[in-house]
Amino acid sequence: MEARREAQPRYRVLVPISYPTDPAILARIRQGERVPMAERGMKRIPAGRVVADIPERSIPWLVEQGCIERVGEGERDD
Amino acid sequence: MTKYGSNDVAFLLAGGYDLLGFTTQLEDTIEALTEDETVLGEDWVELTATGLKRASLTQQGFYDDEAGASNAALASGTGVQRVLCYGVEGNTIGKKFTGYAGALQADYARIITVGELHKANASYQGSGVVEEGLIVHAHGAETADGDTEDDKLDNGASSANGGAGYLQVSALALDGYDDIAVSILHSADDSTYVELLAFTDVTAAPAAERVEVSGTVNRYIASEWAFEGTGTSPTATFMAGFARNP
Residue ranges of the domains in chain A? Predict the structure, then answer.
């Protein structure tokens, strides 16, 4: 279990971001449902933190726009 | 097509001063500067637009000497350039507002007439861009940290050329907190929101700021605010908006 968690790609947050992490909520948003913020349980991450739970479909545009960057295996968290 | 009336006027905010409750008439004029190209032998005058535009705005209303009211705002504003915003389609997220990057107050006239209430009129010259944006946070009071992601703006698609955010803080009681921090967020998928721009932390009202950003502005836009530090029962009355560059 621990090994699988370590295999998750990690990203350093370069610009403050917020996102939901509950898979059920993410599925509802993907289906186009208007999910109230109070239900989403948004996680707020300041710049500089390293995280591994950013919603998968957000990663491409966040990387492209320079909001997050991939952290290498050996790199330590800030 | 929707028609609007005087009851739809959302706000008139200059440098954070809330002038709506004192104003009876607003006149905003955008003028294209032209040059006369008429030469000898022509029957009719020929004009060409030079590409420059000039904005001017006049406001008429009542004289009021209360703190932060029309006299305080206009007497201290002559010769001063302020960020100015007004909205005429309702004080609701998603409605249009007009933003002056710099409204230079050219004059202030107090008019005293027998049998009438005193009047306080002013005119402004636009210095810099005048643009139309959308309200991201309606002018109103907040008493706790929050955001408008539930009521975000949906542009239908991203835009590529940046834009400008506007903030007008008309009243602020921090009650122990250090300041209020307001930012504009954007998102490509309405799932993850990213800070698009952050205004300077506000420690006192009235205050106003316009912040430009370049590059991609994603499809969804919202605002977020937080009282920073430690305190008891803060209140901030503010308006935030964003104008995408075409």
Answer: 2-71
Phi, psi of A63 (to 5 degrees): -70, -45
Alpha carbons B95 and B134: distance in angstroms, whole number: 5
pTM recorded for the entire structure: 0.91
Reported ipTM: the value is 0.81
Distances in Å between the alpha carbon of B83 and those of B153, B164, B165, B168, B208?
23, 12, 11, 8, 6
CB contact B185 to A (< 8 Å): yes
Contact B191 A67 (CB under 8 A): no
Q: Which fold has domain B137-244?
A: Jelly Rolls (2.60.120)
Chain B residues whose CB is inside 8 A of the A61 CB are: 188-189, 218
Cβ separation A18–B189 shorter than 8 A: no
**Average confidence (pLDDT) over B176-189:** 96
- Distances B225 to A54, B169, B199, B240 between C-alpha atoms, Å: 22, 12, 10, 10
Topology of domain B6-130, CATH? Pnp Oxidase; Chain A (2.30.110)
Write the pLDDT tens digit of every residue in B205-246.
999 999 999 999 999 999 999 999 999 999 999 999 999 999
Question: Would you mind telling me the total number of residues written for chain A in this entry?
Answer: 78
pLDDT for the residue numbered B220: 96
Q: How many helices (H) and strands (E) does chain B have?
A: 1, 16
